[in-house]
Amino acid sequence: MTNVYSFDGILVFGLLFICTCAYLKKVPRLNTWLLSEKKGVWGVFYKAAVIGTRLHVAVALCCLVMAFYLLFMK
């Protein structure tokens, strides 16, 4: 189990946030409601969705490496 206040926890949270926003971008209702703002606080969701869709290979590899690290090394 990871702690949110550790570096591992922050990385896991960031990866899960990017993956969740990229998934929510595929849902039409949530895309217009949640990801319509491109600036401000709500713009973080939009930017995370863009990172998740454009860098989907790198994000997937980071998720696999993090899972391997958390399961076998920590």
From TrEMBL:
Q: What is one cellular component GO term in this UniProt entry? A: Golgi membrane
Membrane topology label: Single-pass type I membrane protein
Q: What is its main location?
A: Golgi
Signal peptide interval: none
Q: Cite the InterPro entries for this sequence.
A: Kish-B, Ksh1
Q: Which UniProt keywords apply?
A: Golgi apparatus, Membrane, Signal, Transmembrane, Transmembrane helix
Task: Identify the Pfam families for this entry.
Answer: DUF1242
Tell me where the transmembrane regions lie.
6-24, 44-72
Q: Which locations, inside or outside the cell, does it occupy?
A: Golgi apparatus membrane
Query: Superkingdom of the source?
Result: Eukaryota
Q: Which family does it belong to?
A: Belongs to the KISH family.
Q: Which PANTHER family match?
A: PROTEIN KISH-B
Function as written in the Swiss-Prot or TrEMBL entry: Involved in the early part of the secretory pathway.
Q: What is this protein called?
A: Protein kish
Task: Give the organism the record lists.
Answer: Anguilla anguilla
